[in-house]
């Protein structure tokens, strides 16, 4: 039987590739924890400058528009801090410098829960290949939490070591814990629809898709609405 993730973290750091990824992946969970008093920080690695099918739009203008969308979505979710790393879309690499940047942020904010992409998920059926930026950001995050941030000789200039006890990975093919989001799914819908540059259809279609996914995840764990994750306990 699927496990429920019921604890309320004190400080949550969510590291995602593109400006809308955190909201789509775990927006309802972030809203739930923020509502319960957690400090929630979202780190957005890429600028979002290529996230369009419109050949006429200026990538720099698109990235600017997306900054405003992120700010609006963060307001809905109760996210107080958003950190933009502004690497161009498609240029993310799971490299030392990205891991060091993430280690620095982890050591600065000292989260007890970190979220990000599951980089091992590549093929979702025959219809979707996980974006390379998601995989790169996910690997860089895993390299940062296991073991770099907890060991002082890794990136010694990035602040004093901090161990992250729990990691939840989204966009996973193997979800094994679920967060009850019945009370915050409407907030997630508002946050996701704030990313207007990403909406190809009307808001209703997006809202229905977000709700449908939450109901499907809920069915796997006996809840009316849930978000599923791969759970890592690094307490060792
Ligand atoms: Zn993305």
Question: What can you see in these coordinates?
Answer:
- By secondary structure, this protein is α/β, with parallel strands linked by helices.
- The chain has a single domain, classed as Rossmann fold (3-Layer(aba) Sandwich), CATH 3.40.50.
- The chain contains six helices and ten strands; from the N terminus they run ββαβαβαβββαββααβ.
- It has helices at residues 21-35, 59-77, 96-109, 132-145, 185-193, 203-219; strands at 3-4, 11-16, 39-46, 81-87, 113-117, 123-124, 128-129, 166-170, 177-180, 226-233.
- It has an eight-stranded mixed β-sheet, with helices on both faces. A two-stranded antiparallel ribbon has the order 6-7.
- The longest helix has 19 residues, at 59-77.
- It is globular, with a radius of gyration of 17 Å.
- The chain starts with a strand and ends with a strand.
List cofactors, ions and other ligands: zinc ion
- Can you give the helix content as a percent range? 25-40%
- Annotation field: number of helices: 6
CATH architecture: 3-Layer(aba) Sandwich
Broad CATH class? Alpha Beta
For the structure shown, list the relevant keywords.
236 residues; alpha/beta; Rossmann fold
């Amino acid at each position: 039987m699927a496990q429920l993730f019921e604890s309320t973290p004190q400080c949550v750091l969510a590291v995602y590739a593109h400006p809308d990824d955190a909201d789509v992946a775990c927006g309802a969970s972030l809203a739930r924890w923020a509502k319960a008093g957690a400090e929630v920080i979202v780190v957005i690695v890429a600028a979002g400058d290529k996230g369009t099918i419109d050949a006429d739009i200026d990538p720099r203008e698109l990235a600017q528009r997306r900054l405003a969308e992120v700010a609006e979505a963060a307001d809905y979710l109760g996210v107080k801090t958003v950190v933009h790393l502004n690497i161009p879309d498609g240029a993310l690499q799971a490299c030392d410098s990205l891991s060091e940047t993430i280690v620095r942020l982890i050591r600065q904010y000292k989260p007890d829960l970190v979220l990000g992409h599951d980089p091992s998920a590549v093929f979702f059926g025959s219809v979707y290949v996980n974006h390379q930026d998601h995989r790169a950001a996910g690997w860089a995050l895993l390299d940062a939490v296991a073991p770099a941030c907890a060991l002082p000789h890794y990136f010694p200039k990035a602040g004093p070591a901090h161990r992250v006890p729990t990691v939840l990975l989204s966009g996973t093919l193997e979800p094994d814990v679920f967060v009850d989001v019945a009370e915050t799914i409407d907030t997630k819908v508002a946050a996701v629809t704030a990313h207007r540059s990403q909406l190809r259809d009307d808001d209703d279609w997006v809202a229905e898709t977000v709700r449908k996914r939450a109901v499907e995840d809920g069915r796997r764990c006996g809840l009316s609405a849930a978000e599923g994750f791969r759970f890592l306990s690094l307490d060792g």
